[in-house]
User: What shape does this take?
Amino acid sequence: MKKVVVIDDEPFILMMIEDKLKKAMIDVVTLRSSVGAVEVIKKEKPGLIILDWMMPELSGIELCKILKRDPEIAEIPIFMLTAKGQDADEQLGLRSGVTRYITKPFSPKALLEMVEEVMIVDKP
Amino acid sequence: MAKTKIIYKHIVIFLIFASLIVVPLTFTVVKQVNKMIAEEESLHPPGNGDYTQPHREFSDKLIESLVPFVFYILVLALMLSILFSRGMLISLKGLLRGSKLMKEGNLDIRLPIVSDDELGEVTRAFNEMAATLREKTLELQRKDTYVGAMVDPLWVVDAGNRISDVNPAFTRMFGYAREEVLGALLYDFFDEKNAAVIRKQIEEKRDRGISSIYEISMLSRDGIQIPVLISGSPIFEGDKIVGKIGIFKDFREQRELRNELQREKEYVETIMDSIEDQLFVIDKGYNIIRANRVAMTEAGGPVIGQFCHVIAHHMGKPCWTEGHECPAQTVFITGKNYRTTHQHAGPSGERKFHEIVASPIKDSSGNVLHVIELIRDVTGRMKHEEEIFNKNRELVALNSIAGILSKSLRADEIFTKILDRMIEMLSMDGGGIFFIDDAKREMVCQYHRGISEEFVKMMGRIRLGEDVPGRVAVTGQVMTTSDLSKDQRIERSFIKHSGMKGYCCIPVRGKERVIGVFCLFSFRTHNFTSEEENILTSVGEMTGIALENIKLYEKMRELYEHQRSRREEEQAQILSLSTRLGSAIELRDVMGPVLELIRNIFSADLVWLLVRDQKGNFILKSAAPESGREGKLIYANTVSSIEGYSVERRAPTVIADIRAEAKFYLASDIGNSQFQSVIAVPMHIGEKTVGVYSLYYLGTREFKEDELHFLKIIANILAVSIERSDFYLKAITEKGLSDTILQSVADGIITVDVNGRIISVNKAFSIMTGVTAAAAVGMPICDVFRYSDDNIDFRFSLGECFDDALNGGRMSRETFLTSAFQNRNAVLISATPVLDAGGGVSGVVNLVRDISHEKEIDRMKTEIIRSVSHEFRTPLSAIVGMTEMILEEDIDDKRAKKYLRTILSEGIRLSNMVSDLLSIARIESGKEILKLVSVDMEELLSGLSRSFSPLVEKKKAEIKYDVDGARYVVGDEGKIKQVLTNLIDNSLMFSDDGCRVHISVEDAKGGVVITVSDSGWGISEDDLSHLPERFYRGKHGQRIKGTGLGLSLCREIVKMHGGSMEIRSKPGEGTEVVLSLPRREMK
Assistant: This one.
């Protein structure tokens, strides 16, 4: 079973996702900042990364670009979970290599389904 | 010499005659004697030689003694005859000398009459001849002097329309030498179009003995068209017309001025009407004296003359009674521009926001004469903003440009007497002038345009009272109709179904009655405005006066045909008078000399001219000699005066002894002098009284009928001149007014001719671009913006708009304009064509509106939407997501409790944000009212620090306060608390643990100063400049949750209190916020 790395500066978001995924027997690693996230991801080699966009210091979209440039981890699918709900933002996110763009507020149930879909496809 | 010649002739003739008489006589005597001797001898017998011999010798002796004797007698007779004819010779000699002198040009000779015989008669006749010649020559010389000295060119043409003489002024004006033009055909001096005009005049008027004045363009020697006013009259010899005389008046200046005024007016009207804000000009009584199209449309009723607050804000009461400051009042007091936003109830009670910009119109000495108010309805904008705050949803961009542009322009205010000009002015298709034939009670069209000769013939004579012209001639009332064919008032009419639609008919009013009518028609419908009707009426009156003058003159000529020389003198004087008055626009300078001239002509002791103001008071316009009371009131309307009496009578009034007439009040100028008699001559134009002029005499003076006629003509000339001058002055003042309007508009205005060259720019343009008016005028419009490479887009957009306007379109484009100082602003360009009377494009007005404020609002709105959505979405995630998980029973109860707490706190955050937004919205909308109380700052701050204590404890922070300076502050307690809460919250949020917050309240000069300082992170210089912006969140905003509204709200509240807020900060050194509030007293 692969892991999911979740990065968000809002603790309660992390709490929610962790609780929901763990109940579905998915391993979760949470990070409150994108600083140092690359090392964690390289170490953990997750099957999926869930990212917030608006974070201090390094934004989700910047991190996404860094990840996609690194061949070692470029293949890992990324979910962008953000409050930026405009079409232009979504386009920018998708162009940066995001697999799915999910706007807040979100349904934890729906998120889980999307996570499972990606993890299953990845399984074989 | 002559003497000898005559005497020689005398002697020779005498000798011939003497020889003819003496020789035959002698021979006859001798022969007879010889015969007698022979007879005697025959009686005596021959041979008596003694007797015969002496007899034979007798004849010889007789001859010897008789011949010398006869000769002596003859010589004696000759001498005697010479002696007696000497007297005759003296006369002859005198005549000879006289003739010689006359030949040399001396006409002053008077020869002595020596004898009373025929020679004496001849001498007398000679003297008379010399005197007559002298008089004639003098008359001729005088005429020559008049003609030569005339300012206006003149020509005389013969019956064949060839020039027989011109004056020096003709050469000066047109460049042709006299010799060049003599014998030339007058039509050669005009181009085809003008030649047709003058041909018509000559054929229809001059050849029928009618004088006329008309405007025409004549070709100068250099081939330039010079606009002139020709006053032409036929020259009679007996009943026969032997030629014509034409006097030209230089019309260049007038025409230029007229064109310029017209152009200016068109531009300004277009500008005013292309401003989509309401524009009013307000006088000191707060009455509207001018308004633009938008303002009139907005008001939906009459605007001019109404109170500004009634029209602009739909308020029955002046602004200040409603708690607003009145912008007009403010500007009248301060003399400076003033900008404000008012909230009013609309006509149907709805709430309206008006942004008002008021600017002064000053006279040369800086007094505020009028105020211009530009009123922009910002209700839409305000409501828009409110909507965002109240409903929190995405909004469409504010589109404030609604573009209510003028439909077309009507050049309808410039006065002209001439039919062509009227047609052009009112955009009519044609017209005609009918004159009344009193004897037949009929009218006939004598001058027409746009209709065929045939049509005129078909129309024939119109009986008075019939058809439209006939009815107008009888009623004397102007009649206009927008569509003749549908007008119910007109039943039987020849013209009704002629295809004419727009139609007006104006009576041409002489002094006492209607003498003709003036008709204009259009094949399209034409609504005549009341303004147009007024102009038409005055045109009719002016035309009438002109005609009346000609008639008066002809009447005078009839009456006093024999007083030719005198009439000529008068004509010269009138000419001089007319020339002076005609060429002057500003009458002040010429009125004096003109009155002086009148004074000289009639040898009066005082001449003065009084004009009547609107109230009927008589004001002194000018006097000769100068009185020093010019412009002052002479007779109030309540006083009975000689002048007033003459105006009422509408006729010149002579008073032989002014002191004997007790009923008249005498002005001090008159009363104090010893004037005895007076003639007062009223001046009228149609029904309107212009004024009166009077001539005062120290002695008595009687006036003959011809003098009265002359005075009347002068009155007419003066009246028309005064009217015209007033008209010009009004037009010029209006131009000044319009200029001020142009300059006070906040949008950049560039007027451009059809070739793309800039005619004028206003102040706002210079402020927007940094280019001065002097530098811009004359340049091609797009080149003006070349100073910056960033203006390529701007120039392209401007070019597009301009081209479209040239084709009659009205395009607008949004783009960016970079000023010479590198400021870049969003602008909206809109171009409007300036239409001339014929509907052609004569120029373009380009408006450049700085929409950076609107754009900023737009940007802020987007920001609001973005910020609001983001800030709202995060707490909503907790509420939605966590609730779902609790319901799905994903978590245990203990966890669920934690979830619920999060949901609660995020819910509260959401609610705070909404209330912050609402507070700002309320303050900005002007709905929020301050509840002023005396606030105990000690109590307020202690309460605040208590409420912050959990956070203070958590962050190991410290809040201290010091209110010793001013414990009580008058203000809205709730709002001050809100400000301080926000500021303290900011201090605690944007700081590390152990932060110190200090609040002090101090008494300062002019108010109270509250300072909130902290030892937090501080604000970077970059962020500091953006802090006033709503929804701006600085560097730390990413770390700390907030709305970006806190400081905006504080600022609004402080502003509401009439105070100011200043933020000083350096990164790493903390922040200091200084609030200055004005001192208030509790009532």
